Amino acid sequence: MTIDTLTSGIDPSFGPAVARTPRGLEAEVIVVCEHASNWIPPGLSDLGLDVHAKHSHIAWDPGALSVARLLADTLAAPLVEGCISRLVYDLNRPPESPTAIPETSEVFAVPGNRDLSDAARAERVAAVYEPFRTALAEEIASRAGKLRLLVTVHSFTPIYNGVPRDVELGLLHGRDDRFAIEMLARQPEGLAWDTRLNEPYSAVDGVAHTLDLHGCDNGLLNVMLEIRNDLIATADQQKVWADALAPWIKTTLEEGFA
Ligand SMILES: [Zn+2]
Fold first, then answer.
1. CA 231 – ligand 1 centroid, Å
2. Which residues contact 46 (CB under 8 A, 6 or more apart)?
């Protein structure tokens, strides 16, 4: 794994914003995990959150990084992961999005994001978003011609605003719906997951930023996997999911887009 260093002039407590597991240049798939970490730079005083909120799904996607790592291992794919909580900056949002630095998330207020100055906002973009965007763009550019598919791995909470969610796996797309639709149609027999297209979120919720910017704009097929986080809470569960997703993705790519 390589850790990208920071742009100078930024509060050093931000630390690295992105980590890469590069792997070979022959890979056809790249795996991305934007919401991998709930780490909040010490200079931000936990954004005023209590311990419960800081460890909850609002700060990161629990389980997603482990599944992403296993998936990348199995597919021999490079992995690009975010190292800072999405409450500091949500890497799956462009800087102009009002939810890039959210003042509230589900039922939680995020006091440290309230009334941010333009300078503080710009620092978050420079310290978190830009290094991640650059690292992912470099990984993709270095594989031009070989790389075919970008997969992002996320997890979602089983209960949102008090309402239980039945969906277990969401296949989400942005401007290019081809891979998500093909993958949905190819769910392996015997895999009993409740899989749905564009649930529990979809592009209208602003979640297609990475897919569109790094996938569509580079001519890559792309899909966002949203896994219900109670199903990937343990190492055993994470392995079950990765072991099922890897061949499913590979078959979809090889047979659906021969
Ligand atoms: Zn996420």
1. 15
2. 40, 54, 112
- Across 53-62, average pLDDT: 93
What phi and psi values does residue 39 have, to the nearest 5 degrees?
A: -70, 130
pLDDT of 241-253, one tens digit each? 999 999 999 999 9
Cα of 72 from ligand 1 centre, angstroms: 17
- State the pLDDT at residue 3: 61
Instruction: Measure the CA–CA gap between 74 and 31, rounded to whole angstroms.
Output: 11
* Ligand 1 center–CA 54 separation, angstroms: 15
Mean pLDDT of 173-183: 98
How many angstroms does the Cα of residue 202 sit away from the middle of ligand 1? 12
Supply the DSSP symbol for 231.
G
Taking the centre of ligand 1 as the mean of its atom positions, its distance from the CA of residue 146, in whole angstroms, is: 27
Distance 35 CA to ligand 1 centre (A): 5
Rounded to a whole number of angstroms, the CA Rg of the chain reads 17
Gap from CA of 9 to ligand 1 centroid (Å): 29
Q: How far apart are CA 43 and CA 50, in angstroms?
A: 16
User: Domain limits of the chain?
Assistant: 2-256
* 148 CA from centroid of ligand 1 (Å): 22
Cβ < 5 A residues, ion ligand 1: 35, 61, 154
pTM above 0.85, yes or no: yes
Q: Identify the CATH assignment for 2-256 out of 3.40.50.150, 3.30.300.30, 3.40.630.40, 3.20.20.120.
A: 3.40.630.40
Residue 212: Cβ within 10 Å count: 16
Residues in contact with 201: Cβ distance below 8 Å, sequence separation at least 6, in sequence order: 156, 170, 172, 207, 226
